[in-house]
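Quick one:
INPUT:
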């Protein structure tokens, strides 16, 4: 239970510490185990770690510069608005690898094709925010398990930040950033509302 009780939003990291790439990849792979709507897995992560890349996106941040400057990795979490087409591969691969029977995979692919014809961009984006939020939370808990700290960040220009990195993909919509690193300053303890305020039984 410690990771749930001890996770805090940390804003100042040891700027001289770099998380080893293999360890970072382990954490990202575990984050990708988060659930998503229909298991379409539309969430993508753009890892900003070099000083040059950080300087490029700095003008597109609405504050949160301390996290940007000091974190080992500044992870832009985005959703693929083309998820119904890319999702077909998920079920084809699932069938090929033996995770799903052929009839189940085909049924899911038929549903995906139907939704691709009937869902508008707003509905797809709304689901993308939910899926991305689930992955972000999983990433933050995984990072804490590995001994690192994080901070979720929504204060940035979602329309321009990817262009600053020369990423031009109209189907890729940024939704959240997670800063990740070795804490230099401990995060503040925070108050949580009571169970009585948050939960009602019927």
């Amino acid at each position: 239970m410690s990771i749930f009780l001890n996770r805090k939003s940390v804003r100042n990291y040891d700027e001289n510490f770099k998380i080893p790439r293999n360890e970072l990849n382990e954490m990202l792979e575990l984050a990708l185990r988060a659930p998503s709507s229909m298991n379409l897995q539309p969430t993508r992560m753009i890892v900003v770690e070099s000083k040059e890349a950080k300087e490029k996106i700095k003008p597109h941040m609405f504050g949160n510069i301390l996290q940007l400057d000091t974190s080992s990795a500044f992870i832009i979490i985005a959703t693929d608005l083309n998820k119904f087409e890319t999702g077909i591969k998920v079920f084809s691969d699932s069938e090929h690898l033996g995770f799903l029977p052929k009839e189940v995979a085909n049924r899911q692919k038929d549903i995906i094709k139907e939704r691709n014809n009937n869902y508008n961009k707003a509905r797809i984006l709304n689901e993308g925010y939910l899926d991305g939020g689930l992955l972000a939370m999983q990433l933050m808990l995984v990072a804490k398990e590995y001994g690192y700290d994080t901070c979720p960040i929504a204060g940035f220009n979602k329309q321009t930040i990817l262009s600053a990195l020369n990423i031009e993909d109209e189907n890729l919509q940024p939704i959240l950033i997670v800063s990740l690193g070795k804490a230099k300053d401990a995060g503040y303890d925070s108050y949580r509302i009571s169970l009585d305020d948050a939960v009602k039984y019927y």
